[in-house]
Amino acid sequence: MRNVAGWPKYKCHKVVQAVKIGNMQKERRPGGAIYVIPADEGVPQFSISQEFFDKHNPEIGGYIVVYADGYESYSPAEVFEAGYTRLPDADKPNVPDEPVKVDDAVESKLKRFDKAVKFCREFLAKHLGGDCEVCIRATVRDGVLHIEPSTEE
Q1: Among 86, 113, 133, where does a domain finish?
Q2: Contact 65, 18 (CB under 8 A)
Q3: Which domain holds residue 117?
Q4: pTM for the complete prediction?
C-alpha cells in the first residue's frame, strides 16, 4: 500500500486520501517510473507505474486517489472537485494565517447583534430572575459570521 502520510483528506460519501497533480516527470529509461510532483505544499513527490499511467491516463491538475482499502485510482479535477470536499488537516489548526478583516457592513451587523444579545439577556434576567446562564458568542471565521452558545460572560 502506498504511503499517503501528509496527503490531504477529502470526503464524499466516503473518506479518501488524494493529492492534486502539480507536475509529472518520466524516467528516461524504458519502463521507468513516472514521478508525480504534488500541487500541495509539503506533500513529497512519489512515483506511479507505467501500468497505472496507461490504465488511468492521469493529467496535471487531476487527482491521484487512494481509497480506504488501498485501491488507487485517478480522477480528473472537475469530477473530483465536484464530488469531494477537502477535510481540515488533522495536524494543522484550522485558523487563517492573517486576521480576518471585517468590513463596515459586517461590523454594523455585529454591533446590532450585540445590542440584541444585551436586550435578550436583560429580558431573560428580568423575567427569569437572576443572571442569564445562556450566553451567545458571535465570531467571524473565514469571513463567515458564527453565532454559537458560550459559557463565557
Answers
A1: 86
A2: yes
A3: 104-150
A4: 0.54
